[in-house]
Amino acid sequence: MSKPDQPKGTKLMILKRFYDEKLAHASYLVGCPGAGEACIIDPNRDLNQYIVAAQAEGLRITKVTETHIHADYLSGSQELAEITGAELLVSDEGDADWKYDATINATLLKEGDSIRIGALRFDIWHTPGHTPEHITHILTDEATSPEPVAAFTGDLVFVGDVGRPDLLEEAAGITGTAEPGARRLFQTLERFKKLPDHIIIWPAHGAGSACGKSLGGSPVSSLGYEKLTNWGLRHSVESEFVKDVLAGQPEPPAYFAQMKARNKQKFASITHRPQATLLTDPAIASGRVILDVRPSINYLGEHIYGSLHAPVQAQGFITWAGWFVPYDQPIVLISQSQADAERAIKDLRQIGLDQVVGYYLPSSIPHFSGSGSELTSTISIPAESCNIDQGHLLDIRGLGEYVLHNHPASTHIPMGYLRKNQDKLKKESQTFVHCQGGTRSPVAISVLEHLGHRNLVNVQDGILGFNLTVNEPICAR
Questions:
Q1: Alpha-carbon gap, residue 381 to 460, rounded angstroms
Q2: Which distant-in-sequence residues (6+ apart) come within 8 Å of 411 by Cβ?
């Protein structure tokens, strides 16, 4: 059987996906080679990656757009549009309280509008539920077919999951919005499911994002596949969907509220970017937040008492920093190397923590003891060595992890809520801190020290270590 010929002179569209592992965030370049133009969808602040990619394909970035006001990272849309001279296009849907600031230099999009670059047309659907203003970009490549081929779904539909509708309530503190949002989300999904099954789904997040509870690891899917496998799309009864979508969502990091507020505002032009400046004088750290980004084994071995800790190489680095590092104070880093300091500064910028003064190398740590700071170390032991009778066990995992299995003697406080629940802990008694497998507990220990706690012990193998201990059964609740 012969294959239909591609129309002569037709150049296939260009699509590039950019993925930040620590944010679990995907953004996209969609280009029309015939027109030599590109549109960037949901960019983060790593702007150079989009500019370089467009230049490599011989494209000019002429449009920048986003699906909604993001909560998990600081948008790069306004700055990218300013740098490239592109037109910025954002949603004008949703409640008045959560629209973009009227002073933003942008074209406002409504249901039924379209964005065009050459032969490519993005039809705008208002798809509320995750947020009131959320839009989805339905792509048609008119050079090849009159049928839509893909949907850039933002936080509406993920691979294996759907966007959570409770963030305005849980992260931004707007009470009474979660259940109505869930009902709107159900209605939106019912409409979305009527698109052709061949529609390719390009979401804004992957596995590990706090914008859902069960995101899959595949970068792309199809509507047909998701209708078969995605729990959110398989629901047909609204009340059951509302109950399920609001249950078991992960705790939203504290910085989400900051991002929701800042991403709808007009940005001032960025004139200064933090640099990886090497520091040697401990006095410079006085009155500043000290963030130790070394591997946890180094932090536990010796660190400055009261410093915060988040290992830059860990996938959770940005989220952990966003939980605990204040936005209104300058930051100094303790870093294993210049390269790690540069990586940390770049990652922190993704959530608007721009106030990094510089970094110290490990060789500078001993000098802090002579400038009024206290140096300390943290004992790290396996679960089987914990003598809980001599202290108490603190489980800092998320609620979803805790309810599946936990130690019957443990006190449960999710790591992100340690600050506001510190009164539940006795500073004078020994505290054995554990997570799932030992990755997060050193971070939690730094937060507790920052709050003035001492006599802390790191359980290096977490709850998994207790699972292997015959004399300490796990309690399923």
A1: 6
A2: 392, 393, 394, 395, 424, 425
Q: Which of 234, 263, 292 is a domain's end point?
A: 263
Nearest to 416 by CA among 237, 195, 170, 252: 252
For residue 473, being part of any structural domain is answered with no
No. of helices (H) and no. of strands (E), the chain: 15, 25
Q: Residue 438: give the domain boundaries.
A: 379-467
- Give dist(CA 158, CA 216) in Å, integer: 8
pLDDT digit string, tens, across residues 392-414: 999 999 998 999 999 999 999 99
As a whole number of angstroms, the distance between CA 309 and CA 10 comes to 53
Decide if 428 contacts 452 (C-beta within 8 A).
Answer: no
Calculate helix-pair angle for 178-192, 238-246, nearest 10 degrees: 120
Q: How far is CA 179 from the centre of its chain?
A: 23
Please name which of 362, 223, 231 lies closest in space to residue 292, comparing C-alpha atoms.
Answer: 362
What pLDDT sits at residue 79? 96
C-alpha of 477 from chain center: 29
Residues 47 and 231: their CA atoms lie apart, in Å, by 35
Relative to beta strand 410-412, strand 391-395 is: parallel
Residues 109, 21: one domain?
yes
Q: Is residue 304 part of a domain?
A: yes
User: How many angstroms separate the CA atoms of 329 and 285, rounded?
Assistant: 11
Same domain, 206 and 190: yes
String of DSSP letters for 412-426: E--GGGTGGGGGGS-
Can you tell me the distance from the alpha carbon of 412 to that of 425, in angstroms, rounded to the nearest whole number? 10
Indicate the SS3 state at residue 80.
helix
Q: How confident is the model over 45-75, as pLDDT tens digits?
A: 999 999 999 999 999 999 999 999 999 999 9
Task: Dump pLDDT digits (tens) for 148-198.
Answer: 999 999 999 999 999 999 998 888 778 889 999 999 999 999 999 999 999
Helical H segments across 205-316, by residue range: 223-229, 231-234, 238-246, 255-263, 296-301
Asked if 471 contacts 409 with a C-beta cutoff of 8 angstroms, the reply is: no
Collapsing DSSP to helix, strand or coil, 351 comes out as coil
